[in-house]
Specification:
Elements: H1 2-10, H2 27-43, H3 52-64, H4 88-97, H5 100-115, E1 133-135, H6 136-152, H7 157-173, E2 174-175, E3 180-181, E4 184-186, H8 206-219, H9 230-247, H10 271-286, H11 295-309, E5 310-312, E6 318-320, E7 323-324, H12 339-344, E8 347-348, H13 352-373
Antiparallel strand pairs: 1-4, 2-3, 5-6, 7-8
Helix pairs in contact: 2-13, 4-5, 6-7, 6-8, 7-9, 8-10, 10-11, 10-13
């Protein structure tokens, strides 16, 4: 709750999240606002009909979603998976308001998948501007929304397509030597960052791996138990959890910016991926996707997170530190995906890619505390 309220003070208007100066439909806002709705749900504030958190999120919907369901600054023809993630809050806004514009906006985003470019095996390109490429980031941006839309709209045929996204990207990014998934894969093998034999990028970037873990636990919520292929997602999740145990920093319980080179000079413990991993582990355990064995590791990480990444000022405002601002591959200027590239990207405080997962991870810890009371 304190983290949520701190963000609302720093950004009086919800569209200002992620340091925006003008309106922009952005996956970061959806990530953080979704976490805030989780806080609102957990504390049941909305039942009093006096929820400042819910109003904060609802105002966002008011700024972006028009009466006909069109979305301010969204352009389907860009074919970017990043545009899909914020669609998840539209489900919840429709549930509470029953305003049809939110249902129309959901349909608009879902329709992107019909024509979104794909790899030869059916995996969504990360963006139209990144042809033939699948990134772990993109799995989180699209797959949980896709799974929830299929569930809510009784479209069971889409479950197989959701599962396919995980299986294709896993097949082409999993590194059997490190036991981790690399950041991305270029089917064409034309990118300078891509291995000429495999098409894989050079490293496992912590946040990309964090997106992957969160995508698994969030999409699994909506895929029926008997759906063919679901077991493979559970197996991937278990393998991810095992790798987190192996690569966890023994002293702090946290994880590094470049996962596969934890002891390399210049590498650092990074707050967004660490929060994502804590959330993935604790939610996975709560939902029965992972065994209880991993709880000790997750709680050690949470304790280390509070000690190493959380600061509280004299006014009680909470700050998350040491978050990588942004990292990617290719583009202009060209991002090489080297170790030096990842550690050289700027760090900043209160990045929503750390704040949102930290809020979600904290709620998982609070749920554990509630269980103890019973």
């Amino acid at each position: 709750m304190k983290m949520t309220k701190s963000e609302m003070i720093r950004c009086p208007e919800s569209w200002q999240l992620d340091f925006h100066k003008t309106l922009k439909w952005d996956y970061c806002q959806g990530l953080e606002l979704g976490a805030m709705l989780d806080v609102d749900d957990f504390y049941n504030v909305y039942r009093t009909k006096d929820s400042t958190i819910y109003k904060y999120v609802k105002d966002f919907g008011g700024h972006y979603v028009h009466a006909d369901g069109s979305i301010e600054t969204y352009n389907k023809e860009e074919y970017t998976l990043d545009a899909i993630n914020t669609g998840k809050i539209l489900f919840r806004l429709f549930d509470r308001t029953k305003d049809e514009k939110y249902k129309k906006a959901q349909d608009l985003l879902r329709n992107q998948f019909y024509t979104h470019p794909r790899t030869s095996e059916g995996g969504f390109w990360h963006k139209k501007t990144y042809p033939s490429q699948m990134w772990l980031d993109g799995i989180y941006m699209a797959s949980p929304f896709y799974a929830e839309y299929a569930f809510r709209n009784n479209e069971p045929k889409d479950y197989a397509d959701v599962i396919k996204q995980f299986l294709v990207v896993d097949d082409h990014t999993y590194d059997r030597i490190s036991g981790l998934n690399r950041h991305a894969w270029d089917e064409s093998k034309q990118q300078k960052w891509a291995d000429p034999a495999t098409g894989m990028s050079a490293h496992c970037w912590g946040r990309a791996y964090g997106w992957y873990g969160m995508a698994l636990v969030d999409a699994l919520d909506f895929i029926p138990v008997r759906e063919q292929g679901r077991i493979y997602m559970l197996n991937i999740l278990f393998r991810v959890a095992q790798s987190l145990e192996e690569y966890q920093d023994k002293k702090t319980g946290l994880w590094y910016q470049v996962m596969d080179m934890p002891h390399a000079k210049g590498n650092y413990l990074e707050s967004s991926c660490s929060a994502m991993f804590i959330y993935t582990l604790l939610k996975g355990i709560r939902m029965g996707y992972l065994p209880e064995h991993f709880k000790k590791m997750a709680l050690k990480a949470y304790k280390g997170y509070l000690k190493n990444f959380i600061e509280v000022d004299s006014k009680g405002l909470v700050t998350v530190t040491h978050a990588c601002s942004v990292a990617g591959l290719g583009g202009k200027p060209y991002r090489s995906g080297s170790f030096e590239y990842y550690i050289g990207e700027k760090q900043r405080d209160n990045d929503p890619k750390a704040v949102g997962p930290f809020i979600k991870a904290s709620l998982e810890v609070e749920r554990l505390e509630e269980q103890k009371k019973w």
